[in-house]
Each structure stands twice: as C-alpha cells, then as structure tokens.
Amino acid sequence: MSTPARRRLMRDFKRLQEDPPVGVSGAPSENNIMQWNAVIFGHACLYYNYFVFSLGTFKLVIEFSEEYPNKPPTVRFLSKMFHPNEKSVG
C-alpha cells in the first residue's frame, strides 16, 4: 500500500542517490521503507598538517511514521559515542 509518507520517502531516497551529501550515507532497510540505516562519517582534524583526532563514524537507525513529513522521524544511534561528561557506568 502506498501512502503519502511512503511516496515521500521514495522521493527522498531518489534525491539522496542523485545528489548525496558529503559525509552522510543512508538507505531504507531491504523490506521496510519506513526504517532507514544511515552512517555519519566524521572528518579528521588536522593542525599544521599533523593528524590530531578523528571525529569518528556513527551508525544510526531512522524510523519514520505514517505522519512523515509532518512528524519528524525517531533517530537512534547504534554507535557508542564518547562524551567527556558521561561515565560508562552509572
């Protein structure tokens, strides 16, 4: 069944393939257009041509509802992220 949200997601995916943004990749799951898998590629930070750090690569899942695009999708990061104010336990 093709709903407005599903048609919109198909158009969004086609546009993403035709003009992909730098540092981001995403596509619908094999059998569910309402769930996408995406990756954000962090760039490396250079200082006077010396490698300082990399911002990492982050995998995420984006879940769309039938109310898309009027209701934003739910985004869940699968990759563990470092935050200086967060402890690994507790």
UniProtKB/TrEMBL annotation:
List the Pfam families. Answer: UQ_con
The residues forming the signal peptide are none
Domain (UBC core) spans: 4-90
Q: What is this protein called?
A: UBC core domain-containing protein
Species name:
Colobus angolensis palliatus
